[in-house]
UniProtKB/TrEMBL annotation:
This is Chloride channel protein. Keywords: CBS domain, Chloride, Ion transport, Membrane, Transmembrane, Transmembrane helix, Transport. The keyword Coiled coil does not apply. The chain crosses the membrane at residues 105-130, 197-215, 299-323, 372-391, 412-429, 489-509, 516-540, 565-590. Its main location: membrane. Belongs to the chloride channel (TC 2.A.49) family.
Amino acid sequence: MGESLTPRKRNISFTSLGKEETIPLHNFWASTGYSAGTKKLQLTRRQSGARLNENAAEGLEELDELANYEDFHTIDWLREMSRNRLRHRQITQGLRKTFLQKIRILHDACSGWLVVLLIGMAAGTCAGIIDIATKWLITLKMGVCTNKFWLDQESCCWLHEDQNSKIDNDSCAEWRSWAEILGGHRGHGASDYAVNYTAYVIIAMMFSTLAAVLVKNFAPYACGSGIPEVKTILSGFIIRGYLGKWTLLIKSVTSPLAVGSNLSLGKEGPLVHIASCCGNVFAHLFPKYGQNEAKKREVLSAAAAAGVSVAFGVPIGGVLFSLEEVSYYFPMKTLWRSFFCALTAAFVLRSVNPYGTAHFAMFYVTYNRPWLLFELVPFALLGVMGGLYGAGFVRANLFWCRFRKNSKLGKFPILEVMVITLITVLLSYPNPFTRMDASTVINELVQECGPTSHTNLCDYNVTRHYHGLNTTFVPASPSGGLGDGLKTALWQLALAFLFKCIITVFTFGMKIPTGLFIPSLAVGALMGRIVGIGVEQLVYTFPDNPMWKTDCQFSNGQSCITPGLYAMVGAAAALGGVTRMTVSLVVVMYELTGGLQYIVPLMLATMFSKWVGDALSGEGIYDGHIRLNGYPYLEQKREFTHTTLAADVMRPRPGEPPLKVIVQEGMTIYDLEELVKSNTLNGFPVLISNDSQRLMGFVCRKDLIVALENAHNRPEVTEDSPTYFTLHCPASVSELGNSNPVRLFNIVDLSPIAVSDHAPMETVVEIFAKLGNRQVLVTHNGKLLGIITKKDVLRHIAELEGEDPEKIMFD
């Protein structure tokens, strides 16, 4: 998955009729296009071929690495696990061990913990730098700190800022808007508004355009969220360069630019991709993980957990997110290492302190008023609304992305980014709830109104008299009729909600880093705050209603309803409706806000959101984009309920040419070369004979190419040289009188997965999902009938569901 390096020649030996020879490999690289930099080793087999000696074990590992997977192909999990067991036996075999061997064993045992430690530190550092840069770029559209231009608005006005009015504040003397800088005076007239508006639009356009140019020219894989592709890679798919160094660098630079342009996107999703890039880079420092695709994915699962951990400051939620939403293979040891990686990343992020507060949570809340039993009804309603929004968003976004992909619009990614940015900033500036970044708005919406709150959200008509004195008193949690400011805020909330719902559909999927966590949370928080104010006014207007009369009492204007809690629950419902997360989402929301006692409302809204979303669309946004891009991802959560058989899916189909096979004896070097050139299959079944059609084993295409290249480097081997795939040279080959037959038994998989032609496809799907193999052979009474690949299974499922099977493009 990393950068391509200049290949070195290898020495690989094949035993020919009792001889043990070492043959240099010179021309394999040009013929296959595969490149990797590794040490020179030798593959040797004992003359008997019965078992590997110590050098052979090391050599076989090298052969497997040499015959690596091509780009946009699926790995064979069983093969990779076997390679890892062989490597481990080679290290630990023998009773007497030297000091260096003991050091090597210790290093092998500790390498897993060491690599996740490095990944956690790198992910935390990257996230801290990105957070600080993002805050500065966001406020740069508004103005500049005169004394220290590198400070954002909050840091510049630290001693003067009212922490409870981040949206409507007038800033401080040290912070100057662009109208003040260009006009030289502080004012609020129409001309100043126009200057600030123009500067806001121009700077946002510059940020988004620069991000799009960098992505297109230097790292095309740095666009989008990255989570669908990371999820596909963790399932065993190869996308070379997607987790490379250039992708890491460009996505780290462009994510703050994209968020700073005020587009309806976030940096949290791209942080999962960035952390996975860190995992891939550090995995190559350890051969145990860098040279084994299955082991590497254990490291990438831990890296994904660290990505969510630093994205929101939620280490436990990050581990659960990796387990529930991203990872395909998640053994217990990966759980422990993911926990350690997320812990390390969170510790480093806390040391950087990008939020500038004493709290690690991004949206920390201070209220602890208990929720009431009757509130479960509006909480469930929020869950239903979140599910409706999520289903609608998934369908609309997939429709737009499909249109972009199949139309001329996809050829002009930079122009699309510029147009969407222009529309976004022109419509968002007049509304304070869309002018500021989504994280600030969410933090404002989940907070409680108090005596020092001066925003329109807390403008209630509350006046009380004490001890006969006409004294205005604002309680800790005021409640009353709607004030003029709150009425204005409700209109602004409704407009912001509609605007965010629509513009996010067109934003997600553009060719810049586009995260979806924060926009979904913002939509849900806007929706929840509106519902919360409505419930609060309902209770205030009808205080004697038996549903809340006993539990909800007003004392000096203090409310028992917390609209900020509804914003929190609404945010969880919207994000759950879009992504279909459940357990991990509840834990993430708890860690985000610190509201431990609100887990039950969060669970209720999340479940209703998932039920409604699944009923209307059936898949989350990430699974939808995986399907849209045609990736060979076999979802383990979905059940195969059809009644088809293996014979209905296998190839060759009726009317197709017969399956290309290898006979264990009787084929020449020329025959095998023509077989490889005539098709693009990933492997070939090995039969005992054409007459019997009995299955003997399976040979991977890449291994066969390596063997043929080695054979050509032997001067005594010609195109007419016979080959055999058995342990000992058969009599039919010896009788030919050719002294140079080539034995290819070493590359044969003698135990391929095979099923009967009457096996139900439900079983075959489970084999692919649980074992992770690339193909399954179909037999009848031991005779080969055909083959089923992962692509065949996915196309069959798509065809049964009424979809286009040709959309599955990769093996």
